[in-house]
Amino acid sequence: MPTMLEKLIEDIHLNGDNRISLIVADLCIGWALNFGAKFGIFALVYNLPKLIDDGIIDSDGVSLINNLMVVLYVTFGSFTHFDQNQFHELALGLDLTNRPFLWVNKLEYPNEFLGTKGNIVGWAPQQKVLSHPAIACFATHCGWNSIMEGLSNGVLLLCWPYFADQLYNKTHICDELKVGLGFEKDKNGLVSREEFKMKVDQFFNDENIKSSAHFLNYLVHHCTPALSLTEWWLSNTAYELEPWMLTLSPKLLPIGPLLRSYDNTNATTLRSLGQFWEEDLSCMSWLDQQPHCSNTYVAFGHKGKIIGWAPQQKVLSHPAVACFISHCGWNSSTECLSNGVPFLCWPYFGDQPYNRKYICYELNVGLGLNSNENGLVSRWEIKKKLNQLLSDENIKSRSLKLKEKVTSNTTNRGQSLENFNKFVKWLKE
């Protein structure tokens, strides 16, 4: 494919006045930039190369910011008052963690408190503290202002609410956004020192939570600022899939799922959007002979084997397909969601691990395949999760209900179609 691209550029430059002025490349075809340099063409590359340049990950995809995010920031606002026993447990809990902390506190702490790992101050410039790369997490009462300051700086939250909207905010953070952990009280109504230590340790040791922290940090510091340079961001998604994401900016316009923009299944000349490989349609006649919901579709992007290339949209819409074992790339995810097919998730890199979490724990329409101690997904794990998925009627039902909601966005009065028309109208003005 690289030699074909080089020849294509040469032919265009030799045979006409329309020369290529810009190459836009995603992470999978970064080699295209070499030809841009050879022919003196400007280039724009997305995702992983930018993360490497910014020092977020190395060339192997390993995070470089773990050692920076080490400090626990603790403050509970001006209106929160601990009783003596609770204050005592909090102070000794900070000692138990044996981790560096910054504690905003004006009260006298107990004699047993050592505080050798921490810094205790009467007041702190919260915005500056939360934006500091040393801060790993924020123990907070979940007041809305504090939440927005924490999230806007890409910091995960340890939630300790007291009253009013703080209790609801904790639920939203921990159960819906999944960007925090909540402290639980014991039978005496106290958050014990052991509970405090356990939740702090869980934050630092849980890879899913770390993934959320890094993804949130990337969104805040790399994606969201780019919005200020644009008039609109067209997104291949739907409100029902990512309602919280679409609240980040009024510039985000959901126009998906794009794959459902046509339903003429008899139009044999149509290809799946964004695909350039020749599709092997032989599998469709084989599927036609199978019972409904009896087959597992397995595809991990263009590295797949058995058949060279499948018409994925047609396969996923076929009634014989019961589930989809996928790497959780967003295009594959939207294709699967729009056809009401449950997932078995096997992510590899980039946004795929986050997409898996969203599919399995937020949308609840799939199961994740877990690696064993050797780093392999075993045959027994695949069999177990496949049987579990195919016998779970709740997942099947949720998948079909979500399909109806998602695909309604591209109908004549659907939100995605209206958003796209809004964008076209803006272009014409």
Automatic annotation (TrEMBL):
The keyword Transferase applies. GO terms for molecular function: UDP-glycosyltransferase activity. It holds the Pfam family UDPGT. CDD domains: GT1_Gtf-like. Keywords: Transferase. Belongs to the UDP-glycosyltransferase family. This is UDP-glycosyltransferase 83A1.
